């Protein structure tokens, strides 16, 4: 079990606090201040390693080493960025990193229309309103999301958004097939380097798993993940199976995906979402009955397959008046972990008792 941590001075949650969540062995980290496309500096990597290890945490999982837009666009300039990416893989391997999470979503990482939508119990959570998204100008949404006075939002870094209108222009003629080709090119370059360094690359699915603002999106469902894994048939090329991202589409059965792709999932994001008939969805607590995703069956599928990868609760609601980065409060993620452990430990005991 691992827990995402944004770094010293960049996270309201401390490593002391994470230490008190039962069963958390590592932090999921990144150098959030290195601009996308640049090679990560070794001194900063070592700084995080030393800090985490001082608290007894491993740094096995990095999320994310972001992919420069020129790579996704397939521009001639991509090769330099791919070279930087390879060097970062080698450096991370040298300090013991085992898994690198990344995504291949054009322009935006995840998208929501409301970061603090109130649930029935008075807690708030990330919310996606389909009708609003269909109408809103992307620039306006960017200001609503990124102009958060207290916290920077992962995936919505200012430097990434500064060239937004140019980026939209650049993607105008990029089809889904182009994006597949550009991903294929990237994978063929980096997977051999990852393999040589014993790092498992784990692509995160698109969130939400459909096209937004007319941008192409491809890591969206079982069939596409099947196609993705075949692009480069190598165990070091895998998926960060995110039940919340894929779960926003009720046609996605995540537990079935776990059963099919088990040996290609080094990293699991496990969280629940409640999907409404009109296409809206909101992030909920982890309990199966609180949302539309069968968390029990997902954990069961991992257990059946003897999952030995890394898992994190991904997001949580904002509860008990906690002031936090949207989705990344301490309390609800800790509750989520205890729910996951509850299922896992029960399955473990049942298995032993039957043996
Ligand atoms: Mn996720």
From TrEMBL:
<dbReference type="GO" id="GO:0030145">
    <property type="term" value="F:manganese ion binding"/>
</dbReference>
<dbReference type="GO" id="GO:0042840">
    <property type="term" value="P:D-glucuronate catabolic process"/>
</dbReference>
<comment type="function">
    <text>Catalyzes the dehydration of D-mannonate.</text>
</comment>
<keyword id="KW-0456">Lyase</keyword>
<dbReference type="GO" id="GO:0008927">
    <property type="term" value="F:mannonate dehydratase activity"/>
</dbReference>
<dbReference type="GO" id="GO:0008198">
    <property type="term" value="F:ferrous iron binding"/>
</dbReference>
<comment type="similarity">
    <text>Belongs to the mannonate dehydratase family.</text>
</comment>
<keyword id="KW-0464">Manganese</keyword>
<comment type="pathway">
    <text>Carbohydrate metabolism; pentose and glucuronate interconversion.</text>
</comment>
<dbReference type="Pfam" id="PF03786">
    <property type="entry name" value="UxuA"/>
</dbReference>
<keyword id="KW-0408">Iron</keyword>
<dbReference type="InterPro" id="IPR004628">
    <property type="entry name" value="Man_deHydtase"/>
</dbReference>
<dbReference type="InterPro" id="IPR036237">
    <property type="entry name" value="Xyl_isomerase-like_sf"/>
</dbReference>
<protein>
    <recommendedName>
        <fullName>Mannonate dehydratase</fullName>
        <ecNumber>4.2.1.8</ecNumber>
    </recommendedName>
</protein>
